[in-house]
Design goal:
Helices cover about 25% and strands about 35% of the residues. By secondary structure, it is an alpha/beta fold. The termini are close together. Bound molecules: inosinic acid. Inosinic acid binds near residues 73, 98, 102, 104 and 150.
């Protein structure tokens, strides 16, 4: 039976989202901001961050699949849902649940840049530095974490646990 070890509480998630939302609201004041959540893991993070911003923002989602049902990346990332909003000349902030190797984000950023946005930046709920292989900068991060496989608050293992309100380490 897998064990769920608590790592980040609901309260801590709220605090960090509110801190990052203040920074983003200041940096994007008077700019047309579009949040792009990366499905499926960022659906809860996107909803909460969008509501925490004090500036107007539009929301869209992009679908990307990297992991199957196991816990290590294949390196092959496919876009499974296209963006619907017109990004031309807009400021895009990509919301990712967790950045691990960074390969998913590299692929998504390349894809989004084809639509000629004015800028593209990255906001991550969890930034797992240790296994980074791609050359990317996370512009806003809620939590820096070393390693482990995390679930809850949108993050899954084989599609389970996304509904948990806090974040847990999954131990086999
Ligand atoms: P990357 O391409 O290696 O950066 O992996 C990013 C994607 O892998 C995330 O969007 C998640 O879907 C998934 N992922 C990476 N680490 C974890 C984890 O600890 N728990 C759940 N999903 C993860």
């Amino acid at each position: 039976m897998p064990k769920l070890i608590p790592v980040i509480t609901e309260e801590e998630i709220k605090e960090q989202i509110s801190r990052v939302a203040k920074e983003i609201s200041k940096d994007y004041e008077d700019k047309k901001l579009i949040l792009i959540g990366v499905l499926k893991g960022s659906f809860i993070f996107t909803a909460d961050l969008s509501r925490s911003l004090s500036i107007p923002n539009q929301v869209d989602f992009v679908g990307a699949s990297s992991y199957g049902s196991n816990t290590s990346t294949s390196g092959e990332v496919t876009i499974t849902k296209d963006v619907g909003l017109d990004l031309e000349g807009k400021h895009v902030l990509v919301l990712e649940d967790i950045v691990d190797t960074g390969l998913t984000l590299i692929r998504i950023i390349d894809y989004l840049k084809k639509f000629n946005p004015e800028s593209v930046k990255i906001c991550a709920l969890l930034n797992k530095h240790e296994r980074r292989t791609a050359d990317i900068t996370v512009d806003y991060e809620c939590f820096a974490i070393p390693k482990g496989f995390l679930v809850g608050y949108g993050l899954d293992y084989a599609e389970d646990y996304r509904n948990l309100p806090a974040i847990f380490n999954l131990e086999e």
